[in-house]
Queue: 3 jobs
Job 1
Amino acid sequence: MRSPNRARPVHNRPWASLIAIATFIFYGGLSAIPSRADFMNGKVLAGLCASDVDWESGGCVGYIVGAADAFDHRHLYSTGGSDDGKYCIPDSATREDIVGLVVKSLDENSDKLDNLALFLVSNTFIDAFNCNADLKYPLE
């Protein structure tokens, strides 16, 4: 019989090891990798857009439409904000128009696909809709 004051061996508490491992991974992971939003370049976006797999082509549409929304608001604030600012992308432009425009630009500028997808998409809108050229990203 075991003495009541004697501690249990650690191997009888497997959850304690799991908690220690999870804590180490969580806290170590938070400080180990810098947070950046430049994970997608033009090659990756062009690949998603050319895919026959639904979730990949959906990723293409979602990325472009999200970038278009963010770009248009950035344009609004760069031209005067809510007082005098103007959106760049016309109200008449549909989701299909915007995605088709970007896909065409990616195809025509295949030598630029090493650049960030955000830069390529934004520059496409600036060129196509005569937006504020001050927002144009330099491409390599």
Note: Helices lie at 14-32, 42-50, 54-78, 81-84, 95-108, 117-129.
Job 2
Amino acid sequence: MSAIRTACEVSPCTAKLISLLVFSRIDHIGIAVADLDAAIAVHEGTYGMRVVHRETLEEQGVEAVLFDVGENHVELLRPLGDDTPVGRFLAKRGPGLHHVAYQVHDISAALSRLREDGVRMIDVAPRTGIRGSRVAFLHPTASGSVLTELVEPATVHR
């Protein structure tokens, strides 16, 4: 039986070791928004954050904005169209938490390990993400109904 699928059945120490073999830290949380400028205004005006990066990712069908929170990030995602993954998410669920992203040192190795453990994936190979990172998504059914992203940064941003 898979070590990752049975992590809840092992000791907390063993479960932590299994997690460290795949994830190094939380990279960011992704929030789907319909009005990017209004969401930026809330994060800047109410929370006192500042935009550290803004990028349109045609391949992903989003415009993304990053805010730093310590060594982690909040990523706001505005769909470029209704027929994109984030556009469909907004139509079905409305604005809100879209995904949790974990940083990995070697995304190919992490995907291989998860595939060997039978984890259901959306992406079997990495694709290009924000700031030139390499990213891949795990299917929500593999992680308690939470869309999970793996991120291997092109460079570490803190």
Note: The mean pLDDT is 88.
Job 3
Amino acid sequence: MKSSNFGRMSRQVLYGLGIGLVALAVGIAVSALLQQRYENALDKILLRADAHQLRFDALRHFVHTHSRHAPDAEYRTLVGDAKAITSAIIDYAEGRRAEPPHLICGTRAHLLVDLYRREGYRARLVFVFDTDQSDMSAHTFADVFNPSTGKWESEDPTYDIHWRELSSRNPTSIFDSAEDVGVIEPCGPTKCGWDIVSDEGKSVEDLRDLIDVVSVANDAENIQSTRFTSRAKLDRVLSFHGRTGRFCEIMQGRCDSDEVVHAGAIP
């Protein structure tokens, strides 16, 4: 009799545990569904408010206003030391140093990419090259991926600008729009147009000639892509940082990218 009662009680306990586990699993599934719906609603709000773009511009503007373009002795002590760069920027922002740290386009762009990634966005470095002169010029800025639009957008902390399409006024990436720069324009904090001059005295018009070759590098995803526009003079002998030769001889890594797009190719 005792054995029978014990068996019955055991089955009841197991049955109760089973019901409890099923209820717990259902509760977790419902909670996950509600959370997903909530996150979807948040995405819709962000899309309506274009909050991503506000964050992109705000971070770019912060990096620009809390550093100065100056390839001098101070820059040379900071370059390659991300911790020292961020500490100097924080010290300036919090009033512990009178002048912003001296950086150049590359260090500013690296910092901006790291800030975007810290906010949870995909980000990559953008390099543009001018092949018109024997002494090749280059410039570096950032691309950030907008999850609301599913597109990359270029943000330049040196000139404090982003780029947009003239027709739609939607933000765009220089990598995607490099072939026809006549259909895009730069936009700063107060105006849009190629006549923008930064508060450091740098004319945005100078960037036109630099967009012959555009290369993007995303080390976080181990992807590099290079676009050659119809303006790229790949047979010209160039000099760049002590190296001399044709573009693909002195910048072989760019020409050996995971993706190489030539003028006329469909993106």
Note: The chain has a mean pLDDT of 87.
